């Protein structure tokens, strides 16, 4: 039985059977495949040390702390009497070492209203008993409340991302109260300026007195010369010899 050729358009080689050609081609293909696999194994074994050096080794990620500051609108806290208000200005410092830098602003915008409401509750509670012209008392009360009742940093979390918030607070007067207090403070400032001027004048006068040498004292009158008592004695007693002169010898009596 004669086999049909693979390609009908190609004429078989005379004298060579078709099955023999197929077996020869299959043997050649197996030989080429074995040779290719052998070369591939040798190439791969030689290239592995070089490839290990070129492989990408991802180092452990170092946490980076991102910090941002936000300045929201002033908070309004009614003062004593509910007529005037205080303006509470706050600066929120946000920090996180788990948030990605490109998403940091989104998380801050998400947590900012919660922190603002938290501070507003404390400010309203502390300002209800403070007169409207004493912002320092409200600042002291609010600082004490932050330290005792709700100490910072405030923590917020969403999933695996956590944030810390540090509020910094200042208190300002209502504009209506500021206008009422302006004449009083102008007069007080003028009086303090006059007092400082008088004190400086006194200090300058004292410094000038210390630097000026004192006037010399007036000359004292000369003491009177005491009288010569020897001359006075001789004048009163003529026969008294001078103490510095020797006594004259008394002449011996003449013998008779």
From TrEMBL:
Renumbered residue ranges of the record's region Disordered: 1-20, 206-256
Source superkingdom: Bacteria
Biased composition (Pro residues): 213-227
Biased composition, class Basic and acidic residues, residue ranges: 228-239
Protein name as catalogued: Uncharacterized protein
């Amino acid at each position: 039985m004669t086999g049909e050729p693979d390609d009908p358009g190609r004429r078989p080689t005379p004298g060579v059977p078709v099955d023999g050609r197929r077996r020869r081609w299959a043997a050649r293909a197996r030989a080429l495949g074995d040779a290719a696999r052998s070369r591939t194994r040798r190439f791969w074994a030689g290239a592995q040390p070089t490839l290990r050096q070129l492989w990408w080794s991802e180092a452990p990620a170092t946490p980076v702390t991102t910090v941002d500051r936000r300045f929201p609108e002033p908070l309004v806290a009614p003062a004593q009497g509910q007529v005037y208000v205080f303006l509470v200005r706050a600066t929120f410092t946000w920090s996180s070492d788990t948030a990605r830098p490109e998403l940091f602003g989104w998380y801050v915008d998400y947590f900012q209203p919660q922190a603002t409401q938290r501070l507003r509750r404390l400010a309203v509670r502390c300002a209800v008993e403070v007169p409207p012209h004493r912002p320092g008392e409200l600042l002291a009360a609010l600082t004490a409340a932050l330290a005792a009742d709700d100490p910072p940093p405030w923590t917020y979390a969403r999933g695996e991302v956590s944030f810390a918030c540090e509020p910094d607070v200042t208190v300002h007067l209502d504009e209506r109260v500021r206008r009422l207090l302006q004449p009083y403070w102008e007069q007080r400032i003028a009086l303090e300026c006059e007092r400082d001027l008088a004190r400086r004048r006194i200090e300058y006068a004292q410094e000038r007195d210390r630097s000026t040498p004192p006037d010399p004292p007036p000359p004292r009158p000369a003491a009177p010369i005491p009288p010569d008592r020897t001359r006075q004695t001789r004048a009163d007693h003529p026969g008294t010899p001078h103490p510095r002169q020797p006594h004259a010898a008394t002449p011996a009596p003449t013998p008779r």
